[in-house]
What we know:
By secondary structure, the protein is mainly alpha-helical. Helices cover 61% and strands 9% of the residues.
Amino acid sequence: MNCAEKTAAQVDKEVLKIINGCYAKAIKLLNENRDVLDHISDYLYQHETITGKEFMKIFRKLKGLPEQEEEKKAPTIDIIVGDEKDEA
């Protein structure tokens, strides 16, 4: 960086603060979801691979979240230009 040592030190301090905050958040999320991670680990031990859908099914079941409906066709947006109507 082309800046004074004092400025570089402040930048380094802020970067370290961000990194430490993210690290703490990651540890918290891992601890809060330990049961899910253990089940995923068992699943992988038995099946060797897991899809995103399988992962989310296990996650939702263990967290008590409702099953997500199958992906639907993306909604369209109607665009009106002058007197014409186009579908995007």
